[in-house]
Amino acid sequence: MINLVLGVLSGEFAKERERVEKRRAFLKLRRQQQSDRELNGYLDWIQRAG
What we know:
It comes from Schistosoma mattheei. One of its GO terms (cellular component) is synapse. Keywords: Glycoprotein, Ion channel, Ion transport, Transport, Voltage-gated channel. Helices cover 96% and strands 0% of the residues. The chain has one helix spanning 2-49. The N and C termini lie far apart (74 Å).
């Protein structure tokens, strides 16, 4: 009985870890895209001024 409970808990924790890892990867990608947009805007601004 205890093995069943531990197995269920283990599966739930594995799902939660996977969810957290996916969220972390998504946020990292979003930050990178934001940085790219900011850099491109800055370079456009410099190019127009020059």
